[in-house]
């Protein structure tokens, strides 16, 4: 086995349970793998701007796959390699539709989060995420009096609904499916939509092809619904011990939880030979 690329989810996977820090043990394991020539890619549902604190901790990371695969950023050459957007007309229609629903949502435009200022803002009130992380996320979001006017003629990378009640999932998923969006749930209470072909699996596959790598040369880690496609595609994939049942079914292996440095221990065992 010769792994040439590691693609890892952030929250619930690479990150500690606080969603903010990466343990020194994990940083060291990834750095050792990188020193062996293994490329490191972050694969997250976050917007690009909300990965800066992560890459400050692992500055050797080569790529950032963001917004569930809607964008791929090359950190080494400081350029976007590809983007897979929800087209402008579809974006306008879906924004108008959800403005008429009793739900808070954000859209990602050019790697940043934006929302309608008068939209009821009940972001992560029902989540068990640490308040410090919630504050960090909310600080990265930009409010607009007229979101559609701000959008202009651009497409969007992702739309995310928050504080979705269990009984609302089918309704809101149906609305997204009406626009042929790919849907995913990365944590309880959220619902994410991207273009029909944007997901982490396609992004990792396309990045791998650009590097002349096969699936058997790629190691992936994830824990939630938006990780399933990349776990299915990669030849060497791990669901975290704290991951969902669907993730564990999609992955080839199960690692220890993120609280137990599961990613680092798998990298040490299979790449660093420790």
Written overview of the protein:
By secondary structure, this protein is an alpha/beta fold. The protein has two domains: 5-84 and 198-270, Rossmann fold (3-Layer(aba) Sandwich), CATH 3.40.50.1000; 88-194, Hypothetical Protein, Haloacid Dehalogenase-like Hydrolase, Chain: A, domain 2 (2-Layer Sandwich). Helix content is 33%, strand content 22%. It has eleven helices and 14 strands. The chain has helices spanning 10-14, 24-35, 52-57, 88-99, 131-139, 147-151, 169-178, 200-210, 228-233, 245-250, 262-270, and strands at 5-8, 39-43, 63-66, 71-74, 79-83, 104-109, 112-116, 141-144, 158-162, 182-184, 191-194, 218-222, 236-239, 253-254. It has an eight-stranded mixed beta sheet with strand order 5-4-3-2-1-12-13-14. A six-stranded mixed beta sheet has the order 8-7-6-9-11-10. Helix 9 links the parallel strand 12 (218-222) and strand 13. Helix 2 (24-35) runs parallel beside helix 11. The two termini are 15 Å apart.
**Class from secondary-structure proportions:** alpha/beta
Mean pLDDT: 93
Residue fraction in strands: 15-25%
Global morphology:
globular
Low confidence ranges: none
